[in-house]
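(Fold this chain)
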Amino acid sequence: MKVIEERPVKLIVGLGNPGSRYAYTRHNLGFLVLDELAKGWGTSFKAVSRFEGDFAKVDGDSSVYLLKPSTFMNLSGLAVKKCMQFYKVKKENLLVISDDADLDFGIMKLKPKGGSGGHRGLKHIQSHLGPDYSRLKMGIGSPKREALEDYVLEKFTEKEMSELGAFVGDAEDIVKLWVLEGLEAAMNRANTKNSEN
């Protein structure tokens, strides 16, 4: 009898704020990437109250789940923890996608662990899980004059919108590489690409 190797369950979390008023704001980059991943993988999100978020399952060689917390950014850790506990997801199989004001728009950095960098969503996840989980940080640039709290909730500029599709597409490719080949391969792609810009 052939033994079928059990694939690890992987969870991809995109951070953002729920509701149409926050669509296409800088803080919602994680949601945008997950929406495109779901389209490409032929799945769709459903609100799941037990996870406090919108959830989708991807069929294929790996057990891959997508989660968009609906708790608002500052409480993102609740949804992530509940989903991980329910599906017994190990921390090494979690990837969180967030915006990052310390990186220029269009730049990405994939890290295996680290601090929150002041990002409230990452900070809340870290309060529940600790710092040892992978995160794909997507640059939004820093504000010129206004406060950071206002800047992240603003819509993308016209120039940013013209480049947003390619930026999100690059993130999709990196996430898919993480799913198929693991963290090191995805880090090599993401962090080498930065040096080419």
About this structure: The longest helix spans residues 158-181. The chain is about 40% helix and 20% strand. The mean pLDDT is 91.
